[in-house]
Amino acid sequence: MATSVHTWLRASALVSALAGMGAAVAASPVPEGPLVTTEWLADNLDNDKIRLIEVSVNPGVYERGHIPGAVNFSWHTDLNDTVRRDIVSKENFEKLLSNSGITDDTTVVLYGDTNNWFAAWGAWVFDIYGVKNVKLLDGGRVKWEAESRALNNRVPEYAKTTYTVKGVNNDLRARLSDTLAAAEGKSNAKLVDIRSADEFSGKIFAPAGVPELAIRAGHVPGAVNVPWGQAVNKDGTFKSPEELKVIYGAVGLDGSTPIITYCRIGERSSHTWFALSKILGYDVKNYDGSWTEYGNAVGVPVNNPSGTVWAAK
């Protein structure tokens, strides 16, 4: 009897040790830098110091199935103001993070659909409000699903906290006046239009299937065109810093002067802002007004190589 008890105790000790090893693997250190891989996240889903946030724009995506433990931030109603065209207010942002159980010690991992555009927007908003330890899931939802990783439709509940924004960094945000100053040579900022070549030239006003939201087509004078997709690999992950430096350096974006990114509504340009600012460390502002503001503004210069004026030649 004693022998069997001793055998059971040794077996229990072995199981406990193996469980401890598994927990150690699951709680692996948070990687340096602005990105985490799908592999790392899969091993750290149970880490209570991580808060996973989905920022998708297509209705019902989160509800049909999301990465286990992820909370849902709506781009339309959580990260944008619902009354005025603006990002979420400081007060509502604090409530959002408090309701999600986020503290100053939490590492936030953002991901989403549509090439991580709106998750990158989220990272930009988090940066404006000074949130530390914010990461983007490299490859986003598409890569996670392509690898047949776990999804569920359970909405998690976390103990509420009292999150307080310590400061607001408006230097990360370009306004119409900043963009116009760059266009007219009154500042040394360089403009990068990350839309498609056809949008940039004025051949089309908006991507296929997207409602036209601007009176004029074309681009801001002086802007260079580097479509957002040039920054990513086929699986949606970002290219290496070395590759990114070559891509942007080829059009004069080398970090030696400030940069302003823009697109149509600010979401695609957030993706390029992330690449230039977070991965390469350049001084970058995102112009969230983008072409829907600039293309509708009165008295601003517009370059239109395609010759489309008021939707007609």
TrEMBL record:
One Pfam family of this chain: Rhodanese
Keywords: Repeat, Signal, Transferase
Residues of the signal peptide: 1-26
Coiled coil ranges: none
Keyword set includes Disulfide bond: no
PROSITE patterns: RHODANESE_1, RHODANESE_2, RHODANESE_3
InterPro entries, alphabetized: Rhodanese-like_dom, Rhodanese-like_dom_sf, Thiosulfate_sulfurtransferase, Thiosulphate_STrfase_CS
Keyword set includes Transmembrane helix: no
GO molecular function: thiosulfate-cyanide sulfurtransferase activity
Residue ranges annotated for the Rhodanese domain, each copy included: 46-153, 185-303
Full protein name: Sulfurtransferase
